[in-house]
Amino acid sequence: MQSISAKIPALLTWFQKNKRSFPFRESPNAYKIWVSEVMLQQTRMEAALSHYEEFMKRFPTLQDLADGDEATLLKVWEGLGYYSRAKNLQKTARLIVDHYQGQFPFDYKTLKTLPGIGDYTAGAIASIAFQEAVPAIDGNVLRVFARLTGYKKNVLDPNNKKELAAIVHKVLPKDQPGLFNEAVMELGETLCLPNTIPHCSACPFVSICKAHKAGTAQQIPIRQKSLAKTIEHRTVYLVVTDEKIPRVLLHKRPEKGLLAGLWEYPNMENKETAIKFLPKSFLEEKVLPNTTHTFSHKQWKLSGIYVKVKPFTVINPYCWATFEELQGTYAVPSAFSFYTKLLQTLL
Asked: Residue 315 belongs to what domain range?
């Protein structure tokens, strides 16, 4: 531990010289840190940044988010996936307005009680915004410290993760916790990379890194998932009217469960062959290419059918939408983006 602690000043100096410029770093506050960290969960930096800027235009303050329309929020979030994150953002914003006078709680323990805020996000907000001496343990931090210490246990095991987190906590500088957490995350994102050769020669920890010395950096951390993804075969229907301005049929998913409350193209398991209320005959019908979408816990294998119909009346949870409305109003998750692109060529 002493050798790691001795290198912390070098890490912080490296970070000050090499940190990337992001909009949420320009004038950091709890709200901006919170939104950016939630967006970056399971999302590439490039995708998150473009959405972050649009998000801040629509919801520049916590109050704006609390007062905002959920449909608009989900549309801004479109493409980021894991829509429960967006819903929890708004739920938490309203809770803070109602119970904390619109001011973010400044301590780690209280932050963790808010919807959608777990160990990592609470640590990031508490340390960066309020300088509480707590670590923010994300995948980057786990990877850096697993390599530093030559850690050879499965980091996806909760007990092993706690063990590594305790090491981070011991070396975390009490006077600069936010700077330290940002520096380690930046190191993991730019030098101590996953799934490729890390840039060890530029790393401020290179002289004490056990994985580097042993030549095992690319094998660490060990990540062994215990559960295989379940596979579902589903048929997606692109039902389009023959009007001058065509409309496509959408279905709103239930308010609980996977992709809760979002709009989708009607789809069903392959054991069913058609949407029950569709006309018996179509003006046009064609089979569309297959695609696959992977969630954290399951995989959808999708086949598609395009049908053109005369307009007919539908009721909730279905509606008709023009392609313009599909682009600007209705949040259709990325699970169906392949068919959204195809739809544009079919209209």
From this structure: 230-346
